[in-house]
Task: inverse folding
């Protein structure tokens, strides 16, 4: 749903793009903390037999982040698009590590 909203929106001006970038960076920090907590708590998930559901959820979240990133980046001024793409790299790397764990 949010991806469709981003795709349908008009392109962002420089100030809006910078604002989105700052908020994305803050959100990425929070997401990384959550991922760390999930990986740290894996033994608890294993005991509760919920690891398969947790893994599926992580994979779905990764796909949603990639889709939202792509939709949002397409609305950012071209000169900032490479920077916007890079904001999600640490989150996606952490999600990949969580999937492999």
Result:
């Amino acid at each position: 749903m949010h991806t469709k909203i981003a795709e349908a929106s008009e392109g962002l001006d420089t100030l809006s793009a910078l604002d989105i970038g700052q908020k994305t960076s803050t959100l990425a920090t929070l997401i990384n903390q959550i991922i760390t907590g999930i990986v740290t708590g894996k033994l608890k998930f294993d005991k509760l037999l919920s690891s398969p559901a947790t893994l599926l959820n992580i994979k779905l979240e990764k796909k949603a982040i990639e889709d939202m990133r792509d939709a949002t980046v397409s609305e950012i001024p071209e000169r900032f698009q490479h920077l916007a793409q890079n904001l999600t790299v640490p989150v996606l790397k952490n999600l990949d590590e969580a999937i492999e764990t």
Q: What stands out?
A: The mean pLDDT is 84. Residues 70 and 86 are 11 Å apart (CA to CA). Residues 14-40 form the longest helix (27 residues).
